Amino acid sequence: QGGFVSAAHLGWLTGWLMVLPNAVLALYWGWRRRADVVYSSQVGDGHICIPLCLGLFALVKPLPVTDFFRTGLYLLLGTVAVHGILLLVTGGLPRWAGALLTLAYGWFVWEGLLG
Prior knowledge:
The chain is built from four helices and no strands. By secondary structure, it is mainly alpha-helical. It has two domains: 1-63; 65-115, no CATH class.
């Protein structure tokens, strides 16, 4: 009924439930200096899990798009563009860029929960 663990935050909770195991693997393989595993894991998640979940939901009921979703989509597209440019220019993702991406995600969560 109340508190953070409620129907009002179900999207956030299920999203984190799906993402946290992948994040732990990314941290582990990142510390082991295996960027190939980190990238393949994230690409697999983004190209399989997200479209599959959205597609299955849309089969049952048309999927409404909110303004906050649009904000998240613009943030995601900007992140992809910056990441792609950095991969081409530097051959990887520098730590400072990783910090900026983490801050951008923090802002997104802040706006989503408290904004």
